[in-house]
Design goal:
- The chain has 136 residues and is α+β, with helices and mostly antiparallel strands.
- It has a domain of 95 residues: 2-Layer Sandwich (Double Stranded RNA Binding Domain), CATH 3.30.160.
- Helices cover 39% and strands 15% of the residues.
- The protein is built from 4 helices and 4 strands, in the order H-E-H-E-E-E-H-H.
- It has a two-stranded parallel sheet. Strands 3-4 form a two-stranded antiparallel ribbon.
- The termini are far apart.
Length: 136
């Protein structure tokens, strides 16, 4: 039943004891207090078939959407190794993690001072992620 509802994109009933799992695409327009963005690995984010500037720009936009869904806490992760079928492969972090880590550094520094400054830092970090030039 759950799989059928998910695949048909029906809205499922939610409770305060629920966890939502969404793709970057489905998260647009939604917000949660705590967000975990996982799989931030090169080849996943940006996806490996994003080869030109417009495709990479779209990948950045989708990542921005995912990261900006958190109102209080954002947790990002990547795996050093993944198993695909019977084969284990080493993975590398997404190149976008550099901008995410810089934004986090600014936020942590600002939050110690004043909550209003922290909100300003959040807005700045979102702006940084949007404006980060795509490397060719």
């Amino acid at each position: 039943m759950y799989l059928e509802q998910t695949l048909s994109q029906d809205i499922l009933p939610t409770t305060s004891e629920a966890v939502d799992l969404l793709s970057f695409h489905r998260a647009k327009g939604l917000e949660w207090a705590v967000v975990f963005v996982v799989g931030l690995e090169d080849g996943f984010v940006p996806i490996s078939h994003a080869k030109n500037r417009s495709m990479l720009a779209e990948e950045q936009r989708l990542l921005y959407v995912a990261l900006s869904r958190a109102s209080e806490e954002l947790h990002c992760s990547w795996a050093r190794q993944r198993t695909f079928g019977k084969k284990s492969l080493s993975r590398e972090p997404s190149p976008y993690l550099v901008a995410i880590n810089e934004a986090q550094r600014v936020l942590l520094k600002e939050q110690e001072v004043d909550p209003e400054l922290a909100r300003h830092a959040i807005a700045q970090s979102r702006s940084m992620l949007r404006a980060k030039p795509v490397q060719s």
